[in-house]
Amino acid sequence: xxxxxxxxxxxxxxxxxxxxxxxxxxxxxxxxxxxxxxxxxxxxxxxxxxxxxxxxxxxxxxxxxxxxxxxxxxxxxxxxxxxxxxxxxxxxxxxxxxxxxxxxxxxxxxxxxxxxxxxxxxxxxxxxxxxxxxxxxxxxxxxxxxxxxxxxxxxxxxxxxxxxxxxxxxxxxxxxxxxxxxxxxxxxxxxxxxxxxxxxxxxxxxxxxxxxxxxxxxxxxxxxxxxxxxxxxxxxxxxxxxxxxxxxxxxxxxxxxxxxxxxxxxxxxxxxxxxxxxxxxxxxxxxxxxxxxxxxxxxxxxxxxxxxxxxxxxxxxxxxxxxxxxxxxxxxxxxxxxxxxxxxxxxxxxxxxxxxxxxxxxxx
Length: 364
Known about the structure:
This protein is α/β, with parallel strands linked by helices. The protein is 40% helix and 18% strand.
């Protein structure tokens, strides 16, 4: 029997968390379905993809819109391109990630008469959309077959205007590229690690100041990621006289060795959808400190049992908890072991199996 065809629709295939989830799902599902990924712009995949996954893009590049008319024209052209791909590739189901892709994907899928699943990846209470995009979201999301979210709090937001039965919670899968070696020994270098885009959302400014204030002997802070705040953070590091101790290496594809070489993971976001990097760190056995931001960390960390939870923006608490873990290797070992046990439910095959059940029920 011919395989069903699925199109994943997303803006690009860069280094973000949603892009990692799409890549992991495609690699896990390709044995059961014909899969295409439709992106707004041409982009080389940051994460590894099975060669059988087809890559399609709507445009080589999209320039920022200078006015409302230009924005409408750009998005209408994207809608037409997506709709055309759904027809030419004989797609049976669309799965969309991130708000703009979700809205355009719903409109295109409905124009082709095929089912569509959309996935929100961020807390909508904290990440406000423009008036127009919010109105479009409220108009289109109820027309999707399913809306996938990561937490109960995000589900409550959407069930204010979407039938509760259509909003489901599915966790993010751990990337199978993350290899935890039970016998690995920590190197001599002492590293506090953070992974995330260099943006206000991720709160690395607080982490940089905290590390600079405690200035632990022989320790380094490594923040992996890229983003618009790089210049600001480099200036902060210079002012704190922390060059060589606080390092911004940019994006790194081979992330497992980075987790494996660290001793503490510090997660300082101001808001999230569900924190991929924190799940990955805990899976890799890293004792973690996280802000109790909306949404996600409080579902992973039980304060004082398998990690530390601090209030968003509480730099004093961050400095205190970092100091505790720096001085207490036994606590680091306990938090690492319990944290790894906590995130077992995010193992790739289990999450992909849950997605496959949802896909099949939508196609039936």
